[in-house]
Design a protein that fits this description.
- Residues 547-572 are annotated as: Disordered.
- One of its GO terms (cellular component) is membrane.
- It is a multi-pass membrane protein.
- Its main location: membrane.
- α4 packs across α11, α11 (255-283) runs parallel beside α21 and α12 runs antiparallel to α13 (320-348).
- The radius of gyration is 29 Å and the shape is globular.
- The protein has helices at 2-35, 41-65, 74-98, 104-115, 119-131, 141-171, 181-197, 200-214, 221-232, 234-245, 255-283, 289-303, 320-348, 355-390, 392-395, 399-417, 429-463, 465-470, 472-493, 508-554, 569-616, 622-636, 638-647, 650-666, 671-688, 692-710, 712-715.
- The protein has 2 domains: 2-351, Na+/H+ antiporter like fold (Up-down Bundle), CATH 1.20.1530; 357-547 and 581-648 and 690-715, Rhopdopsin 7-helix transmembrane proteins, CATH 1.20.1070.
- The chain has 27 helices and no strands.
- Mean pLDDT is 74; it is low at 1-6, 555-591 and 685-721.
- The protein starts with a helix and ends in a 6-residue tail after the last helix.
- With 721 residues, the chain is mainly alpha-helical.
């Protein structure tokens, strides 16, 4: 078995790299053609219609007619269908819980994005490169999997998108009267079904299944001569069109769009492959263990395929936000797919790994963890210096104090992992045990404190500062108790294993305790972030209502003097400018903490998948080590992620730059200090030239609401969702 595996790796490498290069070079040609305006938007539309009406239907029909359905593994297809359906409805459920007000168009499009893959243009060449020698029968599953999204799941998304369009029309006065509402829903459903049945790809799927037994899995010669050129033209044309679609998709993106795209990409690229793999193991398409493992690896590879470019056409033309999300997600997912598919395809070739190969991969994993820890340590030190110099953790917000605890834990984790490269030199057992216990404790503590910060942020927004301070003991209890209890149980009950993998160092008891801690952290984080999103929506709704009522009040106070002759007016303007800057800074920090907490979920999910794998399956395949590598990068690279979230904020970098400029001025270089001073003067002039309307709006609307939110006695009142 090992020899066949080793022989298969060069064959895969020989086919895989040319396939990837071929796909992305053609995509690049399409992008260049669109960027240089060689092909216009009308040309792109014509190309799209040719692909969807002729090339792809011909490809689907040709392959469905020639498939032998008797040899198809229907449990494997059921696994793909169940996995896609779970992701579809899970995305819809999470979106409906978090987003307020509920937008059915967003729910429908997000669900389609996370469940529909680029099966034919980009997925088929990769599957062909990996399995054409070992399992050529796997290629036909692409044509059986595609209708799952096309015929079953996508119509549900279309229904939600069209429902939101009808609601918008009704809100604007273009909708139906109440008596016609039920008939309108029936017309909507019938319209979607009719459009679905008129879709050329659906027609080709139905005709392929009908003519399969009629033609006895063989196309007539004349029909084959007609359909084959159309089918063969699909690959290059679709990839070229995909490159055209990438032109101009990322321009002036809002941070919320980027955040949404990252969450959707995480679900599509991480959760879907892991979910499909686990479902395949549960359904067991074959009684043979090796065959089940092959199908599970194939399902994992299929889940890594990027988003299909057709999602752009599902967005209503008037919905600019959804157009930005769909186009940006297409770009990000396609660019991320190349390394993910490459690594997955290469690791799939390692069906079985002997002890020597396993030790080699573990050493490589330790070296990668060491390199990531060095980068994370430097990034964490930069953010830590910014925290100390700005002193915002000390005087402005108690949330930053707890964020500083998480930052210190991340710094200690990176610092603690660096000596792991040299621990194997020592022969003293207690040093290895102490290092392993410390690594497990810091890994669990960073995850529990991420959940604690989500709970602190929810308490601060929903119940106010006073309540947040009263519950300080609860944050420390959760943040420290779970890791400490886990370490005590691990030390007493476990037996140390001879492995360099931290996740398996103390055996099954460590795996069980880590699963429990991660599940608790995930559930707590999700609950807190959902409450936080709902409370934020309620605050925005109340703010809009307050502003509308205030505008009505100002109409009755026109007799007041327009100019305040009080001597304190200039001083008041200075205070308003300072308060406005302070308010903006606080809001920016809250957003940073919110994004950092949400990003922790990807680390939770990857680690949880590895732990479940270790608990139920002791075999270490290539996919297992791939997940181990991703988990190590996310765990020991937390400092780098924190740097991206916080340190790119000028609020952290500015004090560091000022200190650096002051130090350089002592050695004769004043360029940095002059630049910072000029920037500061420009900022001050901008505040000094603030017009009266801006100051009045800040005084009447922004300042009172901000002071109410940070006022401790008023915020003691518990506020509902």
């Amino acid at each position: 078995m090992n020899n066949s595996t080793d022989d298969n790796i060069p064959a895969i490498n020989k086919e895989l790299y040319p396939a990837l290069v071929q796909c992305f070079v053609i995509i690049t040609f399409g992008y260049i053609a669109g960027q240089l305006s060689i092909l216009t938007q009308s040309h792109s539309t014509g190309l799209s219609r040719y692909i969807s009406n002729f090339a792809l239907p011909a490809l689907i029909f040709k392959n469905l007619v020639t498939i032998h359905f008797g040899s198809v593994s229907w449990p494997f297809l059921a696994s793909i269908f169940i996995g896609k359906s779970i992701i579809f409805f899970l995305t819809a459920l999470i979106t409906s819980f978090i987003q307020r007000p509920i937008n059915y168009a967003n729910i429908g499009l997000y669900s389609i994005i996370t469940s529909q893959s680029n099966d034919f243009a980009l997925g088929y060449p990769i599957v062909e490169a990996v399995y054409q020698h070992s399992h050529p029968d796997y290629l036909r599953y692409i044509y059986l999997i595609a209708p799952i999204s096309l015929v079953i799941l996508n119509p549900l998304g279309f229904l939600l998108i069209e429902t939101q369009s009808r609601l918008n029309d009704k809100r604007l006065g273009y909708g139906h009267v109440t008596g016609e509402y039920s008939s309108s829903r029936l017309r909507l459903i019938s319209k979607i079904i009719c459009n679905l049945l008129k879709n050329p790809m659906v027609v080709a799927t139905i005709l392929g299944c009908i003519f399969n037994p009629i033609f006895k899995q063989t196309l007539p010669y004349m029909l084959l001569r007609i359909i084959t050129p159309l089918a063969d033209s699909f690959g290059a044309t679709a990839l070229f069109y995909l490159g055209l679609q990438l032109v101009g998709k990322i321009r002036k993106l809002h941070s919320y769009v980027i955040f949404t795209v990252m969450i959707l990409s995480m679900i599509k690229s991480l959760i879907l492959p892991l979910l499909i793999r686990q479902i395949v193991f549960m359904l067991k398409p074959k009684d043979d263990t090796n065959s089940t493992l092959e199908y599970s690896n194939y399902g994992f590879l299929y889940g890594t395929f990027p988003v299909a470019p057709t999602v752009i056409f599902y967005v209503p033309e008037q919905n600019i936000f959804l157009q930005s999300v769909a186009s940006t997600c297409l770009v990000v997912s396609t660019l991320l797919a190349a390394p993910i598919m490459l690594i997955s395809a290469k690791m799939i070739a390692l069906k079985t790994i002997d002890n020597k190969t396993s030790a080699s991969y573990e050493n490589t994993l330790c070296q990668a963890s060491f390199d990531v820890s060095i980068i994370s340590l430097l990034c964490t030190i930069i953010v830590f210096i910014g925290f100390i110099l700005r002193r915002r953790w000390k005087k402005n917000s108690l949330i930053h104090r707890y964020t500083l605890i998480l930052l210190i834990l991340q710094l200690m984790l990176a610092l603690w992992n660096i000596p792991s490269q040299y621990m194997k030199i020592h022969t003293i057992a207690w040093q290895n045990i102490l290092h392993g216990i410390g690594s497990v404790f810091l890994a669990l503590a960073t995850r529990t404190w991420s959940a604690s910060i989500a709970f602190i942020l929810m308490t601060r927004v929903c119940y106010g500062v006073q309540k947040t301070r009263q519950l300080f003991w609860l944050y420390h209890l959760f943040g420290w108790s779970l890791p400490i209890i886990s370490i005590i149980l691990v030390s007493v009950k476990s037996v140390q294993k001879q492995t360099s993998l931290v996740i398996e160092k103390f055996g099954k008891i460590q795996v069980i305790l880590s699963i429990i801690v991660l599940l608790i952290s995930i559930l707590l984080s999700i609950y807190c972030l959902v409450r936080l999103a709902r409370r934020t929506y309620r605050l925005k709704h109340d703010e809009n209502h307050r502003r509308s009522s205030h505008s009505d009040t100002t109409l009755t106070n026109e007799s007041r003097p327009l100019i305040d002759t009080d001597d304190n007016s200039s001083r008041q303007n200075d205070e308003l400018n300072k308060a406005a800057t302070f308010s903006s800074s606080i809001i920016t920090w809250y957003i940073d903490i919110f994004v950092d907490t949400k990003w922790s979920h990807s680390k939770y999910l990857v680690c949880l998948s590895i732990l479940i794998w270790s608990f139920f399956d002791h075999s270490h395949t290539g996919i297992y080590y791939e997940l181990q590598f991703v988990d190590a990068v996310l765990l020991y690279g937390q400092g780098f992620i924190t740097f991206l979230v916080f340190a790119l904020d000028v609020d952290v970098l500015l004090p560091i730059a000022r200190s650096l400029g002051t130090g350089l001025s002592y050695v004769g270089y004043r360029g940095l200090q002059e630049f910072l001073n000029a920037n500061k003067q420009t900022k001050n002039r901008r505040h000094e030239t603030m017009d009266d309307d801006t100051l009045t709006n800040f005084e009447q609307n922004i300042k009172p609401n901000f002071l109410d939110s940070i006022n401790e006695p008023d915020s003691f009142r518990m506020q509902p969702f």
